[in-house]
Design a protein that fits this description.
With 606 residues, the protein is α/β, with parallel strands linked by helices. Strands 2, 3, 4, 5, 6, 7, 19 and 20 form an eight-stranded mixed β-sheet that branches. Strands 9-18-10-11-14 form a five-stranded parallel β-sheet, with helices on one face. The chain has a three-stranded antiparallel β-sheet with strand order 15-16-17, with no helix packed on it. The relative contact order is 0.14.
Length: 606
Amino acid sequence: MTMATPMGRVLEDHDVGLDIEGLRARYAFERERRINPRQNAQYVEVAGDFSRYIDDPYVDKPLLREARQMETEVVVVGGGFGGLLAAATLKKAGIDDTLIIEKAGDFGGTWYWNRYPGAQCDIESYIYMPLLEETGYMPTEKYAHAPELLAHAQRIGRHFGLYDQALLQTQIVEMAWQEDARRWIVATDRGDRIAARYVISASGPLNRPKLPGIPGIETFRGHSFHTSRWDYAYTGGNSRGNMGRLADKRVAVIGTGATAVQCVPYVARDAGHLFVVQRTPSTVDVRGNRPTDPDWFAALEPGWQRERMDNFDILVSGMPADRDLVQDGWTDLFRELVLSWMPKDGTELTPEDIARLAEVADFRKGENVRARVDASIVDPATAEGLKAWYGMRCKRPTFNDDFLPAFNRDNVTLIDTEGAGLDGFTEGGIVSGGVEHSVDCVIFATGFEVGTDYSRRAGFTVRGVDGRTLADHFANGPRSFHGFHVHGFPNLFMLGMGQTGFKPNVTDMLAEHSEHIAGIVSAMGALGLSRVEATAEAEAAWLDVLFEKSQPIRAFVAACTPGYYGGEGDIDRGLLVNTYGGGSIEFTALLRDWRAAGDMAGLRID
């Protein structure tokens, strides 16, 4: 078929060599057989008999201390990068009376818990590791590994004096608003009672491990653990492998998402035999890690990190930039998915043309990633099983140079359940397709809860005005104003909850949002005010904005294979539709304009 218009020829040329209808059909088929009608309910909550999967294996000995009865200006919930950024930003704004409450034995958050072999950031460390200029630290490599990331969190804590303003190994059990006193009363499992004017919740959206609801999971009598609580006492070794105690063990890793992609190569090298259990494969592109050049780093001009962060955000937002400072798989991905087909002469495209060009670009990139599987894996059947048949943005893309070659080892077997998951567990193994595989150890690389009740993920109850719980307020889905303020919960700021402009570089997003929150707290102090709360009207209006802006994302996710981006099929509970659909750059401008107006529209302040 020949199209007469220039744009028609562009469309025709763009899909040369692609079986568009065949790819559409294959994507739809793979999605359909992975839909689980139980959606998020298909996972087992880590509670009761499963609570051991969230115990802290990294504390040498319990911290003994007296219960605290105290007042503070701000309580920060969580000591990960989000909580550290919030506390550090407040301190830089002159608000020093803060207290971080963290259930773990140290700062670090994600990087405290995730110490599995091979764990590293998948956003380059020069923009992922926050406050590099302030702390004077040079990352050792483009993609730093977990011990270095944990050490950097500790470095931030020391640099800003936050250890003296923290309660570690402490779990909040309830926060309750007292209207007369205009204070949050925070109660902990250590008997602490802390009165705070403000609370910043920075517990993170991906913090509570989840387990698959596979029949018989409670009957397995071998060893098991979740990747976020890696049991080196059992495996031996450390974050770089050398797990000699697995040499005579038959091990099953359940999952092939971002975590498994990083840890599987290490388990494959050390285990007697490794079974990798897959429901849905990941897209796995080139990583290309390398050491940092000290001369290059020393020559960077002040302000380099913010410039680099902003450049990355522009490119992964599908917008053109004069240059690509990061030059990695992320910027390459969005260059291929968006910038590759954008007219360079400013020609306006119809919505139909945009949809067609975007779909074709996605198909082409998917074909390239699948070709990489064929080029990396010797056995054709294994290669076929590891090919991802869904849109490139349906799941978080992964980048690794060792995962695919691991399947060429004689001691590694892929158990591809073709979307169905395992049949079940027995006392001594796992069953797939009616075949039992005996295993000594099961490692759950099954990720974290998304879309479940906020209080369940945070681990405590939040009671606002008139005792209403945050769980009740969110019963039909999250509700907020700008993603930070919740009606009926004065002086509570949500950090990282969603309903904001999402950035793949999450620490950059958390830094921006921390600055916004600190600005509001500072303004309240300057005005001599002590209570700030979103109005019901502002909250409702923001939900309308989010719904309107999310329509393109909803249409995209509806065609995706199930995953946490799309709420496992319950789109309203998905991560992507729960963010500002106009993108991070537009959201940044929205916040800037809101602050510049100076009237705190949408908030009741007194």
